[in-house]
Structure formats: structure tokens, C-alpha cells
Amino acid sequence: MAKNIYAPFGMEAEEVLSLYEIFLKTAGVTTDTRTLTGGEMFFALKGENFDGNKYALQALEKGAAYAVVDKGSEASASGDARVICVDNTLLALKAMARCHREHLKVNGRRLPVVGLTGTNGKTTTKELIRCVLASKFRVSATKGNLNNDVGVPLSVLSIPKDAQIAVIEMGASHPGDIASLVPVCAPDYGLITNVGKAHLLGFGSFEGVKAAKGELYDWIQSEGKAVFINSDDEVLEGMASSRNGLSLIPYGYKYWECELIPSSEDNPFLILAIPESVEPNVNIEEGQEENMVLCRTSLVGSYNAPNVLAALSVGMFFGVPLQDGVDAIGEYVPSNNRSQMTRTGKNVLIVDAYNANPTSMVAALDNFSAFSSSRKMLMIGSMGELGEDSLKEHVEIVKKIAGMDVSGACLVGEEFKNALEQVNDLPSWISWFPTSSELADHLRKESPEGYAILIKGSRSQKMETVLEAL
Fold this sequence. Notes:
- By secondary structure, the protein is of the alpha/beta class.
- It has 17 helices and 21 strands.
- It has helices at about 15-25, 55-60, 90-105, 120-135, 150-155, 175-185, 200-205, 205-215, 215-225, 235-240, 255, 305-315, 320-330, 360-370, 390-400, 415-420, 435-445, and strands at about 30, 40-45, 65-70, 85, 105, 110, 115, 140, 165-170, 190, 225-230, 250, 260, 270-275, 290-300, 340-345, 350, 375-380, 410, 430-435, 450-455.
């Protein structure tokens, strides 16, 4: 008997195919009546604080071609022929996305999909992979960070029929999150950027994070082809080696014998020197002299080097020449406060304020310590979702900051206030502010000038608020 690939969604193939055939007649999918332009298929999703079923008939009035609703909802009893009733709208959305994925072909063969997850650098790495692959292929990739339970199926459904390869980003904050997403996009290849301390409130521990991220490796081991792996990362190496038969495509500093070009205030961007003849699955012989290709980027921070190497590894595996990949990465400009460097009329700002956790915070501080500048300051927001480890992790960051060679540090958030109370003999140049808005008010009065300034914090702290004051 043929395997029912829609079993994870509680649906039979015939039901999903019927739904998919309707989808093909529409202008796409939406889950928000505010984004309707006409002709879409509206999915009435339900959450803790909302119920899309209440807006299904309104969606039809606003121009939706169909509305998919939960059985037993008020809309399901409307008698409108455009209302499609299912047991669970989210699972139906996921099942339909998987159906779309299965119908996408390239020269008669199944569309290759690269699935991506990790604690830090997911979105940056996804964008770098997209840029590298786009130098040779028509690429479809997750837009922004639509990487959750709803975002992944929407990303899959947005893959056009003429795509030659797809890159799907998957996020996780609880055990089982990745396991619930891989059946949606069914990746052939997997890549975990890294595994660090993040969402500890949801995962419970670092081991919990490893287990959750490793669900991507589990899928590839049983259903996919191979994983791209940073061979410099002992955690990832250990996770991979514990899964017998998992096919690996390694990359990394040591594996490729790459060199990192030191950064400075005059030249702050990440630059890598990569052997010209590097190819996937082939080690450079010891002592072999190679011409080096310089990979110049617009990314700040040596912690982005593995992200760059990951993108080049994926590209070369699919036949993108190294130089073409390097050129594509050189043209990529980061956005949304991710690893950006900005020169204002008064200061040099290194902005990595999209999010933060202990692992990424330490990496950013270490990178800033190595940054060559005579006058440096820190603007650091607290880290969220750390559960019972929050105080301990914030204390460690305070201690690290106290030992740095900087002119000043401004810490934001209640978590840092609690941590500061636990640390003795603090330098006088460390100050605390309840919110980033209050820090911004302080900076407008003080008007610091002539500094290199690192700005980082969790999304909840909105550290970008201070930018206009600097």
C-alpha cells in the first residue's frame, strides 16, 4: 500500500487533492482579510486569541474566491457554496502546501528543496543561499522570517511553477516544532546553522534545543538525501554522528582551509580568503598551495563567516562556480537590523538588534572586542525567553561586559537590572535604563560623538529606537 504522505495532517490524499485543485483556480492563499485583493483562497485559522472563522463570510464579501473553515463553525452552516469545511484549517493548509510541493517539477523531476533551521543566523544564511543560487537558478525562498507554523506552508504555497530550487527556513521555540514543519516542505537537503541557548523557556534546556533542531536531521536521515554541515561546529558534528547513515556535505574554516581577514573601523566588513579550487566533499591536500579568492561582504561580524561558507557550500553542490557565489554574496546587503554597519554624522554603528540570545550576544561582544577602534560603546538590551536561566545568563553577560575595553555600556531592561544587582565591583561606566526609549532620551541629551557603537538586544527591547539619537 502506498504511503499516505498527508497522514501527519490527519487527511487522506483524495481530500487534499480536491482542496489543491480548488487552490489552483485561485489567486493564491491568505489568512488575513486585510490583505485580500480579490480571488484568493481564505483560510480561517484559529489561535488562542483569535478565530478566523468569524471573518470567513466577510472575506468572501471582500472578494475571496473561497473560504476554508472549521467544521461546526458558524460559517460552515452558511450554505454558501464557496465555503469549504475541513476538520482543522491549519492542518488543511499544511497538507495543501505539501501537495503543492509534490506537484512542483524541474525537467520532470521533483523540485529540490533545502530546509534550513538553527539558533542564530537562519534568515541571513537563507538570504545568502538565495543570492548564491540565484546566480544560476530561478530560486524561491522564504520571504522575511515566515518560518513558523503558518509561515512555512505559506512559503511553500508561494513557490512558483517555474522555480528550479527552493530554500525554506524553519523556526522553532518548542520541542516538536521542526518535526511538525518538515512534512510540510519535505526537504531533500538540510542545514542547521548552529545550536545555541535560545528559547530556553520553551525548550527547557540546551539539550532540549539540540533535540528540537535535530528533528531536521531526523527527517533527512529517513526521507531526504543529505545535510550540509559546518565541520568546525562540535555540537553539530556530534548530532550528525549520532544518526547512523546520515549523508553529510561538510564545509568550514578547517575543512576548506579558509582565512579570515581582520576587520577594523576603516574596513569593518567580513572578508574571507577561500582556496580557489575548493569543492564540496574534497579536502585540500596538506601543504598544497592555492590561489585564494577573496569573498568581500557587507556583513559585520566574524560570526557571519559560517553563514557565508554555508551559502557557498550549497551553491557549489548545485553547480554554482565558487567565483559566481562569491560575487553574489558581495552584492548582498543586509537589512532589518541584522549585522548592519552604518556611519552617521557622529558615530559608527554596528546594528545587530533584530534579536538576541546568550549565544549570539557572546558572539557579538567577542566580535566587537576585536573591532579596531579607539573609542567604543555598548547599547545592549536584555534577552527574552530564557526561563529560569534568565538571571544566570544576564549575570554572565554583565560580567563579560565589565571586562571589556570600552568607554561605556548602556544596558536596557528589567533582566539586566536584576543581573547588575548580583555583580560586585562594577565599572562606573556601566549604566542601566528601563527601556530603549528612555535610553534614546538620554542619548539625545548627551549626544555621544566619535564612537564605534554596538547595538544589540532581543526584539522585545526594540533597540533600534536608539538609532536616530546616535
